[in-house]
UniProtKB/TrEMBL annotation:
<feature type="domain" description="VOC">
    <location>
        <begin position="115"/>
        <end position="228"/>
    </location>
</feature>
<dbReference type="InterPro" id="IPR029068">
    <property type="entry name" value="Glyas_Bleomycin-R_OHBP_Dase"/>
</dbReference>
<dbReference type="InterPro" id="IPR037523">
    <property type="entry name" value="VOC_core"/>
</dbReference>
<protein>
    <submittedName>
        <fullName>VOC family protein</fullName>
    </submittedName>
</protein>
<dbReference type="InterPro" id="IPR041581">
    <property type="entry name" value="Glyoxalase_6"/>
</dbReference>
<dbReference type="Pfam" id="PF18029">
    <property type="entry name" value="Glyoxalase_6"/>
</dbReference>
Amino acid sequence: MVGRFWAEALGWGIDSEEPGVTNLEPVGFAYPDPAAICIDVLTVPEPKTVKNRVHVDLATTSAAHQAELVARLKDLGATPADVGQGDVPWTVLADPEGNEFCVAEPRSIYHDTGPIGAVVVDSVDPRAMARFWDEAMDWTLHEVNDDHAVLRSAKGVGPYLEFRRTSDVKTVKNRVHLDLRPYAGDDQAAEAARLRALGATDVDLGQGDVPWTVLADPEGNEFCVLTPL
């Protein structure tokens, strides 16, 4: 249900669907085009208990577009969410399983991102996150200060990755995480070792014997290093 909600929400297609996993990507997308990040929706046994530390911001082009998108998402099953945001120009919603996301007011920075303006991560220290993730990926660091850090593909296309300061402490496994895939011809083990040298740590989530490597960044946010294509 969540996979189909997001396919409709973004206007994307379901690339593949198997028991326990639904893969979403833009229609006509050819990986690894940096113009978009793909979404995998996985079945997990753990119930959602706290606000997600990772969410997406959806981009809009005008106040009318924002209002229309919010109404359409509610029709698809989204519900208003109160995460203590107060009086803000963006709208906070939750998908049918309670995963929070924002429908942003028109922002010039998101004018060419596609439907997902940014993947946003709660961060105790955005500067530290910028240091790690700027080295972890070949993306470009656009802005960093005490309150937020912003990265984007070096090709200058697609959504942003943003770290925004919060006082909330991470207490449970993130329900939303990033997957990193080395380039074709690169070595997965060598890439995982490079990330550990930058400050990543190994994480056991009960994943067992799987072809990917599960790590966590310096603030404990889990991510996976996949096998190269």
